[in-house]
Amino acid sequence: MKGNKSPCFFTRLPEQFGGKIPFIVTDLVSRLRELNAINEVGLFRLNGSQADINEIIAKLDKGKIADWSKYSNVHTLANCLKKYFRDKVEKTPFFPATFNNTLEQLSTKSEPEVTSGLREIILQLPKARIYTLAFIGKFLVDLKQNNAKNKMNASNIAIVIGPNFFNFDPKITNILFCNLLQHYDEIFNGFEVTEQLFLTDEDMEIIAAPPIDTNGLLEIITLRKSSVIPYVPSYVLNDPNVSLPTRKV
């Protein structure tokens, strides 16, 4: 990427990648598939190399990794993928906190009702989040279907992955994420993930500029507006009845 300032890709939300799936997610999942990670016992549950995790994240924060050959520990890669979502769960969870009450009520209903209700909520997310969840969800479904080898059934996956997407009671999170994995096709019907949703090199150049901090910008505008002294024509200044305004600090 051009310029000295890091694009800070790893801290970006899924919808801050030009409407496509974050390359961080697609590249890590693709690498895990290359390494046949769905055969690995305890994927997403066991720790990898912390040094390599830090190194991979630092590189992804700046852009795509051209050569993945150095990174072949599937647990290291899986932990990087989890961390992308986990780092956001406290302040900007994948499922916004505004859905928490609805999701909590939904978790007490029958399985078919949970499935249909979960789909309705997912449909309210930004399209980029829907496709991101559909993409990683398909990988997790493949992992689940190979649980005879990897010991990662739907419940086990939900326990280690769910809390990275929802910011509330883990017991409820497990119910919801388990349902998502068991009824993936029904929930994501109509959301086919194609290569058109993957970021190209040209896309990467376009999105390289750090995202604008709109909240911070609004605060600055408001502060400046409140501190500006209105323009006073010169002829008015000569009027003894006119007092000049002062700046409030």
Automatic annotation (TrEMBL):
<dbReference type="GO" id="GO:0005096">
    <property type="term" value="F:GTPase activator activity"/>
</dbReference>
<protein>
    <submittedName>
        <fullName>RhoGAP domain containing protein</fullName>
    </submittedName>
</protein>
<dbReference type="GO" id="GO:0007264">
    <property type="term" value="P:small GTPase-mediated signal transduction"/>
</dbReference>
<dbReference type="InterPro" id="IPR008936">
    <property type="entry name" value="Rho_GTPase_activation_prot"/>
</dbReference>
<feature type="domain" description="Rho-GAP">
    <location>
        <begin position="11"/>
        <end position="188"/>
    </location>
</feature>
<dbReference type="GO" id="GO:0005737">
    <property type="term" value="C:cytoplasm"/>
</dbReference>
<dbReference type="InterPro" id="IPR000198">
    <property type="entry name" value="RhoGAP_dom"/>
</dbReference>
<dbReference type="Pfam" id="PF00620">
    <property type="entry name" value="RhoGAP"/>
</dbReference>
